[in-house]
Specification:
Structural class: alpha/beta
Number of strands: 16
Radius of gyration: 21 Å
């Protein structure tokens, strides 16, 4: 299949400029577009590490369906995979990512034209999908629930938060919770779910005063602080003077160290991510107060969402009524156009999003 670099804002200057309407028009002429990684980032990624590539529209073979992607997810874990190595992204191939799309043509007996599908062949306008392969599944229709929910609070983001709270940390009603990067996708989902589970106080950290206000005034956090305003441990101790029972960690580094200082005896840490280290930033290999795990009989356990896909139906049964009632929102920042996928990804790494960062394709 021939692949031709094509235009896109936020991509290398040599790639030029393309509008979403151009991509939409070209798609009707049997053309598809995909974002390729063409170089390994040195520290924080640059737009020149990527290219938007034009290819012929693929045709489904036996057991596959041609899906037109409607929404793409950009996630922190993508940054680690861009360094290559075992399980990492290959250069000059379409990047993968969670996506929601509509079936255009199918030779998979489980999928019909018009079906909505969740799959992992994202960062492109079209994909060949096999039901059940790598988590691909047909989506249920939930009237009153926005499609964006399936890539945010009903998707891997919400599933991560749900698994962290109900399985890893086993949050109980009346307990106090701290979540780092609380204004991001997993952070906002954690706040919503913890409240529904009966958490007593929910404290969050974020990267700006505006995000702190968003947490306390819009999302109902009991307290929040900007980690730029002083040592995390000191700010957390002020926000939670009686301590915390559970910490959902999306940052690592000084946030983990601060949480270890505030956790009560028999507290639990659900470690989801360490965004403080993703771009080669210098962070301590381990918190200086790591022995608090022993001193306080704490439990620290990592959370990988792929180990909890069996909870998907349970998650939807738990959250859909609250999404329909408006008690819980989708909490997304949406960027328009395949040509802005890299822009959305880099913006997410810089913390420019509130909630989950998504890319919408088409209208």
């Amino acid at each position: 299949m021939n692949a031709t670099p094509c235009p896109g804002p936020g991509l290398p200057p040599s790639v030029g400029a393309m509008t979403t309407n151009t991509a939409s028009t070209a798609s009707t002429a049997n053309t598809a577009y995909a974002v390729h990684q063409i170089a390994r980032p040195a520290g924080f990624p640059d737009a020149s590490d990527f290219a938007l590539v034009r290819t012929p529209l693929p045709e489904p073979g036996p057991g596959t369906a041609l899906v037109e992607n409607l929404l793409l997810s950009v996630d922190p874990y993508h940054r680690g995979m861009m360094d290559g190595g075992e399980g990492g992204f290959e250069l000059n191939t379409p990047l993968e990512g969670r996506s929601v799309g509509r079936v255009l043509a199918s030779r998979d007996p489980g999928l019909r034209e018009g079906d909505l599908v969740f799959h992992r062949e994202g960062w492109r306008t079209h994909a060949l999908v096999t039901l059940g392969a790598d988590g691909a599944r047909k989506l249920r229709g939930y009237p009153g629930v926005p499609l964006e929910a399936h890539l945010s609070i009903l998707g891997g983001t919400g599933l991560t938060a749900y698994a962290a709270l109900t399985r890893t940390a086993a949050l109980r009603a009346g307990e106090d919770l701290f979540v780092s990067a609380a204004a991001g996708g997993v952070g906002t989902a954690t706040g919503h779910i913890a409240r529904l589970l009966g958490a007593r106080r929910i404290i969050g950290s974020a990267g700006s005063a505006a995000k702190v206000r968003h947490l306390t005034e819009r999302l109902g956090f009991d307290a929040a602080f900007d980690y730029h305003d002083g040592p995390v441990g000191e700010q957390l101790a002020k926000a939670a003077p009686e301590g915390i029972d559970v910490y959902v960690d999306n940052v690592g580094g000084d946030h983990l160290e601060g949480a270890l200082g505030s956790l009560r005896e028999y507290g639990r840490i659900a470690w989801v991510g360490a965004i403080s280290t993703y771009n080669g930033d210098r962070s301590p290999a381990a918190p200086r107060n790591l022995f608090e795990v022993v001193h306080k009989s704490l439990r620290l356990e990592g959370v990988l969402v792929r180990n909890h896909t069996n909870l998907q139906e349970e998650l939807e049964e738990f959250l859909v009524p609250h999404l329909r009632s408006g008690r819980v929102g989708t909490d997304t920042t949406v960027v328009q156009g395949i040509d802005r996928t890299v822009e959305a990804f880099l913006g997410m790494l810089r913390g420019e999003n509130l909630g989950k960062m998504l890319v919408r394709l088409g209208d």
